[in-house]
Automatic annotation (TrEMBL):
Organism: Pseudomonas silesiensis
Gene3D superfamilies per UniProt: Leucine Dehydrogenase, chain A, domain 1, NAD(P)-binding Rossmann-like Domain
Pfam family, one: THF_DHG_CYH
Protein name as annotated: Bifunctional protein FolD
Cited InterPro entries: Aminoacid_DH-like_N_sf (IPR046346), NAD(P)-bd_dom_sf (IPR036291), THF_DH/CycHdrlase (IPR000672), THF_DH/CycHdrlase_cat_dom (IPR020630), THF_DH/CycHdrlase_CS (IPR020867), THF_DH/CycHdrlase_NAD-bd_dom (IPR020631)
Domain Tetrahydrofolate dehydrogenase/cyclohydrolase NAD(P)-binding: from-to ranges: 140-284
A GO biological-process term: tetrahydrofolate interconversion
Recorded family membership: Belongs to the tetrahydrofolate dehydrogenase/cyclohydrolase family.
Keyword Ribosomal protein: no
Length: 301
């Protein structure tokens, strides 16, 4: 077996959170208390776990969290009213709407209702468009975490060929945009791609985000590739339920230079970058408010 590096997402997330805590302390010295509002609609067990973990991390780094739990029969109009209230509340810097929403709700309309400067998930079309243009915006947390892991593992990414497997709005598309901003050559593979395996074998970097357990095996990988596995799939393995990624980990190991495990790879980075986005949003909003208050008033008389 060739030597490989196991990319430790837990350790990387811990480093990010240490810096976030320092940034929060710095903001507090300026009488700024970063605050994150989390909205959970319904009783989905997985969503409840995710929300609980996000709130715990917020408290650990000194971010004030405000939780809004809404009943499963909440209407889209009621949700929009809550979002409007949070948009107008200057003490709230970030708004996180936990997905998925109940089937009767208009998810896109709700996400678009969140003020772009409080959109810490990076899902608003204004942030999506800005990211595609290479501007600095609040970017989706999972792709941002993946990019951090790549930079920590590979150093300079310029000129590397990156293959993104999957074209979702949450991971695949923003991941491709971030890699382009980092001056990678980017190929996006999806269910209609021809010769997907052959294209993937050309990649220096592979980001798997397709949601199919163990789809990517050694035959997809160039020797020495760096692999980021975003997939989290629960399977029944010999009567035991466990989590696996989109990459066949054991098959990939002899071929890769570095790879993320599942669990313990990308997952911790998502929450870490949610905290980072909240602090970034708090600072940007404070600077904007200060600029408005310092702007000269011109009398019309």
């Amino acid at each position: 077996m060739n030597a490989y590096t196991l990319i430790d997402g837990k350790a990387a997330a811990a480093r990010v959170l240490v810096q976030v805590r320092k940034d929060v302390d710095s903001l507090r010295e300026q009488d700024i208390q970063p605050a994150l509002a989390v909205i959970l609609v319904g009783c989905d067990p997985a969503s409840q776990v995710y929300v609980r973990n996000k709130i715990l991390r917020a408290e650990e780094v000194g971010i004030r969290s405000v939780e809004h739990r809404l009943s499963p029969d909440t209407s889209t109009a009621q949700l929009l009213n809550l979002i409007a209230t949070l948009n107008a509340d200057r003490s709230i810097n970030g708004i996180l709407l936990q997905l998925p929403l109940p089937a009767h709700m208009d998810e896109l309309r709700a996400l678009e209702a969140i003020a772009p400067d409080k959109d810490v998930d990076g899902f608003h079309s204004q942030n999506v468009g800005g990211l595609s243009q290479g501007r600095t915006v609040l970017a989706p947390c999972t792709p941002s975490g993946c990019l951090y892991l790549l930079e920590q593992t590979c150093g300079d990414l310029r000129g590397k060929h990156a293959v993104v497997i999957g074209r979702s709005n949450i991971v695949g598309k923003p991941m491709a945009a971030l890699l382009l901003k980092a001056d990678c050559s980017v190929t996006v593979l999806h269910s209609r791609s021809r010769d997907a395996q052959a294209l993937c074998r050309q990649a220096d970097i592979v980001i798997a985000a397709v949601g199919r357990p163990r789809l990517i095996n050694a035959s997809w990988l160039k020797p020495g590739a760096v692999v980021i596995d975003v997939g989290i799939n629960r399977i029944d393995d010999a009567g035991r339920s466990r989590l696996v990624g989109d990459v066949d980990f054991d098959s990939a190991l002899p071929h890769v230079a570095a790879i993320t495990p599942v669990p313990g790879g990308v997952g911790p980075m998502t929450i870490a970058f949610l905290m980072k986005n909240t602090v970034t949003a708090a600072l940007a909003q404070h600077q904007a408010q200060r600029s408005q208050s310092e702007a000269p008033c011109h009398s019309i008389y």
